[in-house]
Task: structure prediction
Amino acid sequence: MKKIAVFTSGGDSPGMNACIRSVVRTAIYNKLEVVGIIRGYEGMINGDFLPMQSSSVSNIIQRGGTILKSARNKQFMTKEGRAKAAENLKNEGIEGIVAIGGDGTFTGAKIFFEEHGIPTIGVPGTIDNDLYGTDYTIGYDTAVNTVVEAVDKIRDTADAHDRLFFVEVMGRDAGFIALRSGISVGAEAVLIPETETYVDRLIEKLKKGWERQKSSSIIIVAEGDDAGGAYEVAEKVKAKFKHYETKVTVLGHLQRGGSPSAADRVLASQLGNAAVNALIEGRYNEMAGIVNRKVVFTPFEKAIKHNQDINQELLKLADVLSI
Result:
């Protein structure tokens, strides 16, 4: 193998730039040429390739977002689109790919290999932390820290005005951000998609807190909770429990931005390095991850079809500490 490419795809996450940096410099260390594909699969179809040197990734490790941009592309979902992408890669002399993204990115890479035989190693870049085959995904730690910083400030004003705040965090299908940030900020309740939400039980907990003269309460709600988002849950509670003034804050895409944490920078650097080495070793259709502090590789099919399980011990801890 003499030449590889790297791209980012799907939702951006803090640490993607650190991973790009690691891929580029590991490739150069191993005497490989490396190019960046601008805007993921869209750039692959359009032939938007950027030759990269060590200097190309200077001063980016601390930056959020992705210097290679990201886009979702419907044309790549067709055989014709994938054939055009493959032709562009072969004309460019690209023999392997590092794909930084989530399950949609890996699904596309798996089909692409089956049709055109270009090996790809995936790196999990998503704040949701819901990919099977790694303890943590790139961007998750930063997203949690962003939530904690915001909620700490919200609690100040909640306490000053006897307010009940419902804070909605990202997590359409998974409650990892909500659970870890909820424990970190001392939330009175954490509502996530993996567990059924009983509004009456939540109200009972709030009543007990009021009787103990708690001056404020914070409820963390994952956007995909079965009882609805923060606004919907807040309305249900407000209808039956009027002791607090009720407010809602939706953090939204704030969680995707910002400078990556030290943990995300190290994780991204490890996985970018592992991905390039895997291509050199002849691996393909696998996602690089860290499990129990060791680099592991999980077949795309398994990483895509299996969801990482929520930590039941943390769920119990959140409940115990919220009394």
